[in-house]
Amino acid sequence: MTSNRHPTPPDPRRSGARIDPAVFEFPAEKIRGGFYSDKYFPRTRSVLVARRINSRVTMQVFQRKRALVAGTDEVVGLLRTCLTKGYDFGDLRVRALRDGDRADPLETVMLIQGPYAAFAHLETLYTGILARRSRIATRTREAVEAAWPKRVLYFPARHDHWLNQPGDGWAAMVAGAGDVSTDAQGSWWGGAGTGTVPHGLIAAFGGDTVAAAKAFVETVGEEVNLVTLVDFHNDSVGTSLEVARALGDRLWGVRLDTAGNMVDHAVRDLAGEASVQGVNTHLVARVRDALDAAGFGHVRIVVSGGLDAPKIRAFESEGARVDAYGVGSSLMRGTYDFTADIVEVDGRAMAKAGRWLRPNDRLEVVE
Fold first, then answer.
1. CA 202 to chain centre
2. How far apart are the C-alpha atoms of 280 and 274, rounded to whole Å?
3. Which of 143, 147, 247, 364 is least crowded, fewest Cβ atoms below 10 Å from its Cβ?
C-alpha cells in the first residue's frame, strides 16, 4: 500500500457556530486586571482612560509563515469575555479567518476594530493563543497529510504542561488528527482520550504482556478498542502473536514502539544490511506477515517513537503496512509567531513604518 498516491485529506476548515466562550473558562477578572499581559499594555490602557482618549483603532493580526490557523474561536471568546469594564463585544467589529483556514505569510488573519481602551490589555493573550494553536494545527496537519488516508494519533500530552491540553487537542482535531490521548484534549468538542496497554501496566504484571492485556480487557468496557504495546521484551513478533492468540477478536491492534537505539529481535538478521534500529518498515513487515500467517489479519499495526511528517512520508514511500501513526513531541516544535499592529486610528491610516492595512476578503464578520 502506498498512501502517498491518494489525494490529500479534505479541507479541515471549521464552519458553523463558534465555540461558546464559557468552554474556555477564562479567569476574566485577572485578565482584565492585566495579570497575564505584558505590563506595557495595561499601562497603555491606564493612560488612555486617564486622558479620556477613546479613539477607535483597527488592529491587524498576521504571521509570517504558511500556516493552518487555529485559535480564532478562542480569541473571539476572549474578546467577548474579557474586555475592559464598561465595554462589550458590541463595541467592536471583528473579522477573522476560521479555525482550519490556511494562511499565507503576512496574510491578515484577524482585524479588530473598536475603542483601543477596550482591548489594549489583551494583545499578549490573543497573539499567544493564535501562535500556539496554529503551531499545533500546522504541525499536526503536516503529519496527517503525510499519513493520509491512515490515521494520526495525537500523543504529545506528556511533552508539555497539562493545562495546555484542551486547546492543543482542539487544534489537533481541527487539523485532522484521528484520536487524542486524554479526555482534556477532547473536552472542547466532546471527544475522549484513547490509548494502549502501556509499559507501566505490563511491568506491574511482572513483564507479562498477555496477563496485562487480559486484565485490561476484563476491566474496561467493550467500546474500548484494545491496543497493546508489544516491545516490552524487544520481541514484537513473538509478543504480538502471544497477545493475538490469547485475545482473538478482542484485540484491535498492536503498537510497535522499539527504542531508537535498539534492534528488535525480529530483525536482528538484517542489522548488517539495513538500518533497523527502532521502529522501521522491516519490523512492520515481519509483524504483519506473522499475524497474517497465523490468521490474525484483523489486528491493526500502530507505530510510534520519534515520528514526524518526514519520517511518516518515508514509511509511506516504502509501502509500510501501517494502520495508524502515533505522533508526539514533533507536533509541538517550531514557531508560528503572530504580530498585532494598529494600522488605522479613527478611520485614518496610522501605523509604524513598514506596516499598513492589508485587506483580506476571506475574513468573516464575527456576529
1. 28
2. 10
3. 364
In the chain the domains, ranked by start, together with CATH numbers, are 3-135+335-365 (3.20.140.10), 143-332 (3.20.20.70)
CA 174 to chain centre: 8
DSSP 317-346: HTT---SEEEE-GGGG-S---EEEEEEEET
Taking only Cα atoms into account, the Rg of the chain, rounded to an integer number of angstroms, comes to 25
The answer to whether residue 93 scores a pLDDT higher than 60 is: yes
Query: What is the DSSP-derived secondary structure letter of residue 225?
Result: P
pLDDT tens digits for range 130-164: 999 999 999 999 999 999 999 999 999 999 999 99
Q: What percent of the chain has pLDDT over 90?
A: 92
- Contact assessment for residue 302 and residue 324, using Cβ atoms and an 8 Å cutoff: yes
Question: What is residue 313's three-state secondary structure?
Answer: helix
Helices of type H across the chain: 28-32, 40-50, 72-81, 116-119, 123-147, 165-175, 199-204, 209-219, 236-247, 281-293, 309-317
CA-angle at 100, arms to 96 and 101, nearest 5°: 55
- Cell numbers 535498539: residue: 262
How many Cβ atoms from other residues are within 10 Å of residue 293's Cβ? 10
d(CA 366, CA 355): 24
What is the grid cell recorded at 183? Answer: 479526555
Q: How are strands ordered across the β-sheet holding 226-229?
A: 179-180, 151-154, 324-327, 300-304, 251-256, 226-229
Mean pLDDT of the chain: 95
Tens-place pLDDT, residues 150-202 = 999 999 999 999 999 999 999 999 999 989 999 999 999 999 999 899 999 99
d(CA 70, CA 68): 7
